[in-house]
Design a protein that fits this description.
This protein is an alpha/beta fold and 489 residues long. 40% of the residues lie in helices and 20% in strands. The strands form seven sheets. Strands 1, 2, 3, 5, 13, 14 and 15 form a seven-stranded mixed beta sheet that branches. The radius of gyration is 22 Å and the shape is globular.
Length: 489
Amino acid sequence: MTYLGLDLGTSSAKAALMDAEGAVIASRSAPLAVSRPAPGWSEQAPQDWIEACWAALDALAADRPAEMAAVEGIGLSGQMHGATFLGADDRPLRPAILWNDMRSAPDCAALDAAADFRGIGGNLVMPGFTAPKARWLAREEPALFEATKRILLPKDYVRLALTGEAVSDMSDASGTLWLDVGARDWSDALLAATGLDRSHMPALVEGSAPSGRLRAELCARWGMAKAPVVAGGGGDNAAAACGVGALAAGTAFVSLGTSGVLFVAGDAFRPNTAGAVHAFCHAAPGLWHQMGVILAAADALEWLSTLAGAPAAELIAEAEAADLAGEVATEAMFLPYLSGERTPHNDPAARGAFAGLGRADSRAELTRAVLEGVALAFADCQAALGAAGSDFDSAWAVGGGARSRLWLRIVAAALDRPLTLPPAGDYGAALGAARLGLCAATGAEATAVCAPPEPAEVVSPEPALVERMAAKRARFRALHPAISGALRA
């Protein structure tokens, strides 16, 4: 028996095949593009998701026909918060509005005043979430809002194509702002505040529970012997937590991806809206999690790479060489708010900055400042999570940025917590989705299936580096209000 995980990201769709022992035996991906038709807008055509997912699955079926024939369960993961507006025929009425789209910022205050989104939904009303996008549609494209019969999250639109069922899971649904996160059910009051009701929403299941079976024509397309069960799955971060085994209360991971996430699992619903903490259901029953989210982690390094005209890997190598040579004299600082910020500021208008630059600062030192700025933003997330009652002894390190030893050392020092690296292999959202697919197919408990791997290495905080980051932290926190005030004066 094999199990399939399908992860719909923003830049690609990835399919991973897992054997019965939990090892990824093959994976394939297909690219996706983002459309930005106006400043602050971010959209994708839902049909592009289908084509990318099908391309990845077609490639797996061509390369691994025997393993695809043996698939018993499929799990789904995906980018959160996106709004896919469907008409009566379940066809998209317009391009989907994505998680990093800021157009609904003017709608957030009115929506926040209309119902208890903070208490019931457990989160601030932010433009990245789904509910403000629906209010924007009602205000700016009212005919399309009136024609909307169903709103699905991105991965759940893919599920509809896979199974014919309109279903979401608790973790992804938490990011809509329409879920009563403590009760794990849609909130009539929050839906009504957006001019909607339960008829506009998909059914809800736990991430490890069945949501339907694969359509017969797709089974034939991919050579599957029988129709696999499709699990509820999870939002990308909850699924990634299933991949590294971060389910027990107090287990955590740091994701150095395009955006940055500090994720801590918990056994209760503990919101902290004052610190812009995300409080969501986990992908496993009876569990919740909290996240601090920064919008530019590796993306900040990619931005510098574009300006410098050099690959990000080259910039990292220069910074590491300077560190090894003891040439870390700069006191330059960097605010990574290139696309606004979520935790702890909830400020879509926040902007990035270098401060404290000197004539002697080199490109390597600017790179170092970017790495440290992202790490200090994670420390802000840690403080916000702590205010909500969540702490952790150590955290798994995942994402592309985790390949940099220097960056891991800096983040470990900023958090003053050891970072644990998983062994070589795929421990991301696609693996977590496949694990949830196994649970749905076999009835196994998610807490047993989603066990952590044996650590490959632990990066411990270095006292001298901890001292350096602690000294910079107060200055880092003072920069945002000072720069925001200057920009808005």
